[in-house]
Amino acid sequence: MATMNTSGNETSLKQILQSMSVGGIEFLQGTVISVSPLKIQITNDEKLIINERITIVPWHLTDHTTQATYTVGGGALDSETNVVASHSHKLVTYTLTRGTLTVHNALKVGEKIHVLSLNNGKKYYVLDRVVS
Question: What tens digit of pLDDT does each residue of 42-60 get?
Fold first, then answer.
């Protein structure tokens, strides 16, 4: 695992990002309080609630569909083929090759997230969920 050397005593992601930040950028933490429309309550500032008009949510934090190839029971998943089951005593092999995969990863009410405040709070970018 790679480690990051910093000139100060930064010990958290927040401290590291803030030590590298340029004026007008701030590292914040928030809680999702609504998903439709998106509203995020910024931690330690109950008056600051950001909404979807000024917030960028990256693709990986949404429900989305993508193409995927993976193996199942020695086979692979493919949208161009159907499921084929073969039986040899107790072994069943499914041959699926490539297909569409729906990822359900949208933000949910109550989740804690990391947010970058850009341009002195005129725009916000959701970095990721906070895992505790």
Answer: 999 989 999 999 999 999 9
Q: Give residue for tokens 């910093």.
A: 6
- For residue 73, the one-letter residue type is G
For tokens 């910024």, the residue is: 42
pTM strictly above 0.90: no
Look up tokens 């029971």; give the residue: 73
Taking the CB of residue 28, how many other CB atoms lie within 10 A of it? 20
Domains of the chain: 13-59+107-129 (2.40.50), 65-103 (no CATH)
Q: Which residues is 73 bridged to in the sheet?
A: none
Helix (H, G, I), strand (E, B) or coil at 117: strand
Distance between CA 14 and CA 127 in Å, rounded? Answer: 12
